[in-house]
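Figure 2 data, in text form.
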Amino acid sequence: MSVLFTIILPVFLVVGFGYGVAWRGWFGTSAVDGLMNFAQNFAVPTLLFASMARLDLDSEFRAQLLIPFYAGSFASYAAGWAGARFLLRRPPMDCVAIGFVCLFSNTLLLGVPITERAYGTAALDGNWAIIALHSPMLYTFGITVMEFTRAKGTGLSIGRVALRALTGVLRTSLVIGIIAGLSMNLLMQAGLVMPQGFWDAVDMIARAALPAALFGLGGVLYRYRPEGDIAAIGMCCACALILHPAVTFGMGRLFDLDVAGMRSATLTAAMAPGVNAYLFANIYGAARRVAASSVLMATALSTLTVWMWLNLLP
């Protein structure tokens, strides 16, 4: 029970604080949007830049860590897509959007602070390695599948659809932060030395990223009241909170993943879908109510499921 109060509860109290002030009208819609614009487009990309620039690329990008996590991601997508298509009889574009909700964990805003509180800052290297691939790979996959689904029967060429997908991914601020950080990492390995004042400024912005984003996340979640589509929402929650981490945990044991890697991979997999899952659905106008309600419900339920996974991990 102490794990719940010392590790999980503080993170969700910050989210709840944002939710509460938005509910009471003390922090308006425009203020929430402004805060999230700062967090998602500037502070969080700066945090990713700093983390990627300092990551030990040789030791952390390893198959034993990455394969279990992403096998769980794609297994969760497949289950969500198939359930939406064959059980719930949703339209093809809805199926892709629902699958994406199951696929896209909140690796950064929830995964990083919970892992850090549970195991310390030194335990985050595995998280950063997963996050480095998370947005570029999963956005590319989701956008590509959606564009092909949407283009079916329109006569658009494969090349044009692929170009649309690539352009969409490269415009994402999180991906820009990751690419810039990895580029800086390689330049530093080649001998580039940046002045300490540069890193001090980067760290000042990076330190604001998670508190601002968690508080803003609460304000955004207030808008997503659950309504209807209970079967689809329940399926998304089960895939994201149970199936994804279960596959990751099982494959991690099969791959003989070390303790630090198992903690990073499983806890990151156990996070609820992020707000980006709703934004993806909103862009394409597909399954928006399911995506919005799943983000809210899964975030609330994850206070209990994350506690369960923390107790199962070494």
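Caption note: The mean pLDDT is 88.
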